[in-house]
Amino acid sequence: MAKKGSKNDITKLTFEQSIENLREIVEHIERGEVPLQESIEQYEQGMELIKHCRTILAGAEKKIEKIAAEQQQENEEPAEEEIEEDFDDEDEEGLF
To answer: Where does this protein have coiled-coil stretches (predicted)?
Structure first.
């Protein structure tokens, strides 16, 4: 069964820990062996875990986009230099 915790506790969980807690909550609620009020509390905790997971995923997506953009920029810079060198070579050949 997932541990009850405050929002601060949830924010300290890793993505994997949050997913595991969500699985436990779903299993517990689906069994239908808990009182309604406890099911509602677990549902609320599950929603907080989902929000936390989405925040983690959004942060990971931003990091990946940043890394990809940096990599793309690094790959494009040498190409621009090579093009400039090619133009310089052509200009010199055409003068004489």
So the answer is: none
Q: Is residue 75 part of a domain?
A: yes
- Nearest CA to 25 among 8, 39, 35, 7? 39
Whether residue 19 contacts residue 50, with contact meaning beta carbons closer than 8 Å, is answered with: no
Give the model confidence (pLDDT) of 32-41 as tens digits: 988 999 999 9
State if pTM tops 0.85.
no
Determine which helix (DSSP H) or strand (DSSP E) holds 50, and give its type and residue range.
helix 36-95
Cα–Cα distance measured from residue 50 to residue 29, given in angstroms and rounded to the nearest whole number: 16
Residue 1 lies in a domain: no
Supply the range of the domain harboring residue 42.
7-95
Q: Do 36 and 60 touch, CB atoms closer than 8 A?
A: no
